[in-house]
User: What shape does this take?
Amino acid sequence: MEWDWLNIIGILAFASSGALVAMEEGYDLLGVLFLGFSTSFGGGILRNILLGQPVAAVWSQGSLVGVALCVILTVFCLPRAAIARWQRPAVLLDAIGLGAFAIQAALLAKGLGFPLAAVMVSALLTGAGGGIIRDLLAHRKPMVFQQEQPLYGVLALAAAAVIGLGWPQSPFALAALLIVFVALRMASEVWRWHLPRRSI
Assistant: This one.
């Protein structure tokens, strides 16, 4: 299955979210660019480190780097009203991007012969790693650990587990898995499903 368009959607979501966080924190243009690129490609870099793959492979994605740059600069130049409208569909885009990246990472790790635990961790790092880097650079609690973002990382782990346990890798089966992932992610957002939490 051709995943290029899903990569573009993921880059659109993560580049814009990185830029928005940087702007909320009052960063200058360099900071906005840095957080935008970190969010877009940080997860893939962490995944490659985990799986022993070349980290420099990120530079072979020239078209996606260009897409990220255009998105970041566009968000930076948008008026406040347009940014407010951007944030609502961004939740859906983020769900699609997270799902696509998690599934891709799981397929890569499984194809390289790694055990189930590595398949799941690589999916989580790819889907949520960029956001973790973004939030740490912005001195925020990472989104994946916030109760306000229900099941953000759990669904990535679940999708990877399904693939690691032998989910069919036909285009239809993978598309169905992505649809189920996005549906559950949006349902968790609407009904506020979350894991138990305990504070001391």
